[in-house]
């Protein structure tokens, strides 16, 4: 659908992967929704929908019908003129999270206090009249006050034919409490049969305490994984109402309010929030500046060019939010498993109860405890959090380093890269070439002006370099150049006074001086009319800072590095030697670049293409991973799967290392989650009690389940650490 819009909305009420599956299914079945991805790590939904067939209010109603809630713009409330829609929703989500977290912390502290008291009374204190009723009262406060959230959510889910983690907790806590209360009120039911009427109020109180403690630690950890987006959002300039084209005064220590250009004055500006580079950048008249960056001690006046949602910072925030809301391919499989996980656990718990009751000397009581233990120990949370928390932390970490990753699959692909193909100009080099020599072979008046006009309209970095060395007042009284056309990979063509003129790398005749320029590693550009050479230009471009270091780092990571350029062979070879690149392909047109990447892919390579120009866009799209330099063309950036904001090539090995760490942590998380459940559930049923020599207690099961989720999220948080080898 051409009029589809993409929005990120916060979701409340989700507790596990089964909840995510339910919300996602409800959204995808809603009219007008093209795609929906729900993340448990960020408690948000990324929704592509047709605004003519759906609306935020309809989407919210759909989620509410599923038993959850979606925070959307409130049409009845007066909008805050100082906040954008995204910022207002983020603010509401933060307020809702803060309220929920405070309530959770209060309930957890109360539950822990009650659990300690119940354990002390039940297991250490001597018997006294009414002891059972005191334990029942304390446990009732824990279950009904602190644990009410489990029952409320489970009831909402049950009304919609859905079961989640809260269903398991509510069943286990409710069964253990009601069974103990029944035994307290009607002990003769068991004593008349020669059995003991056991009380298990300690189990119900400890289950509530342990699970709430696990939720509290989990929420703290999850909140940290999304801090990169919150930090970026917090950098949004506070000055509002600025219009494009307006002249704005920026004072020392102030955040720059818009993207634009310095008109007068100078200062050092901290751009680390965009580029990840800690060194302040000197800005003077004519220098570009970006919204949200921090001005130093100088004052200057700037012209605002992009404001509000159009600034680079806003586009980065949207890109990171979209990426964190996306899902890796492996997560879709995990979601399918989690959708069946809770019903399967309930079935296992029921079979455990029946098995102990009818086929064991332990009887109904032992079966009931085993049933409760199975319900408590199973942990779909760890499965559901394993992938999204790692991806959210990894993508956030990349954003803080000036590496923007388009989606989860891009991060996963980057971990498999074993061949990197580099463009030359603007990627391996600085992208600011300088003319070292301009030799005219024709004294025809007007040609310098024609050459300058054609190169200015070519849009190529080499063309800009040539135009800079020709004064703008030369031969002013000449007829204009018409039909100027850029020839991808070839140069530019134009018509002047009925003649077709060309500027490019090919010449109609041999020019010996140009051969010497080539041998020196310089790029040669010819100006001709198809038959006669009019001028020859030698251009040199220096290696970008850190390029050789980046190439060496990639090679140490076991990655082949290739140089693929449209420049001539001598220049490409000279630059490759300086950078340490061993494999070079020169004189490559855009189609040649695509074919070169296809050849590498056919040989079994997973290829990353690094480029910055329009002529790189097809190759970026063909590669398994396209990485665009932030200073490059909009087409290249939109085609790429990742963007290096600072255009620093050293960020590429950082991207590979980050992606490999993220994928490794995802595997660790999933491995732990699956192994934990595969081991814990059979042990909880009691089937292995004869082999192990013990039966798992419900209280121990609750602690194990809580630790499982906390361990997964904490492992993902390692990605936010600053060390390179975490």
Entry keywords:
27 helices, alpha+beta, Calcium-transporting ATPase, cytoplasmic transduction domain A, 4 domains, Rossmann fold, 726 residues
Description:
It is a single chain. With 726 residues, this protein is an alpha+beta fold. The chain folds into four domains: 97-227 and 321-392 and 662-720, no CATH class; 242-306, Calcium-transporting ATPase, cytoplasmic transduction domain A, CATH 2.70.150; 403-429 and 543-645, HAD superfamily/HAD-like (Rossmann fold, 3-Layer(aba) Sandwich); 434-540, 3-Layer(aba) Sandwich (Calcium-transporting ATPase, cytoplasmic domain N). Helices cover 52% and strands 16% of the residues. The chain contains 27 helices and 24 strands. The strands form five sheets. It has a seven-stranded mixed sheet, with helices on both faces. Strands 14-19-18-17-16-15 form a six-stranded antiparallel sheet. It has a four-stranded antiparallel sheet with strand order 2-3-1-4, sandwiched between helices. Helix 1 (17-28) crosses helix 12. The two termini are 43 Å apart. The model is unreliable at 78-82 (pLDDT under 50).
Number of discrete helical segments:
27
Number of strands: 24
Query: How much β-strand is present in the residues?
Result: 15-25%
Helix content: 40-55%
The overall pLDDT average reads 80
Low-pLDDT sequence parts? 78-82
Gap between N and C termini: 43 Å
How many domains is the backbone divided into? Answer: 4
Strand order of the largest sheet: 12-24-23-22-13-20-21
How would you sum up this structure in a few lines?
Helix content is 52%, strand content 16%. The chain is an alpha+beta fold and 726 residues long.
